[in-house]
Amino acid sequence: MRHGHGNPLAHPEVQMANNRSYVTGFIVASLLMAAATVLVSGHLLPPFALLLAITGCAGLAIIAQVYFLLHMDLSEHSIWNTVALIMFIPLFVITIGLTWWMFSQLYLRTMPMIPGMPGMH
């Protein structure tokens, strides 16, 4: 399989790019973020259901952006970009989780306990 192209416009990734896909991705992600904003500002759901709804909107927005804006799918010419994304996700989650754990432990170990403060034992 030959990877070089004489004409750069004949490259598969360049041919996939079109305004329709970008506009669709932008509109879908914007609508999902607007829906999450309305849910939060209107207090339309109980707290746990609100958290689930916001998480769902964010997850769908990420999927829309990856598909419509980054053009990642399982086709032959973009499979390695998709594999790289799949390998990146656990590393990202671990990094964020360990950072949160580190700062929460740092807070517990360095902040003085004030008697009578709510939540303090």
Explained architecture:
- The chain is mainly alpha-helical and 121 residues long.
- The protein has helices at residues 12-16, 19-42, 47-69, 79-110.
- The mean pLDDT is 85.
Summarize the structure.
This protein has 121 residues and is mostly helical.
Outline the low-pLDDT stretches.
none
Record field, number of beta strands: 0
Beta-strand percentage? under 5%
Following the backbone from N to C, one meets helices and strands in this order, namely HHHH
Structural class call reads mainly alpha
Q: In which range does the helix fraction lie?
A: 55-70%
N- to C-terminal distance: 67 Å
How is the quaternary structure best described?
A: single chain
Nearest-integer average pLDDT: 85
Computed Rg: 22 Å
Write down the overall geometry.
flat
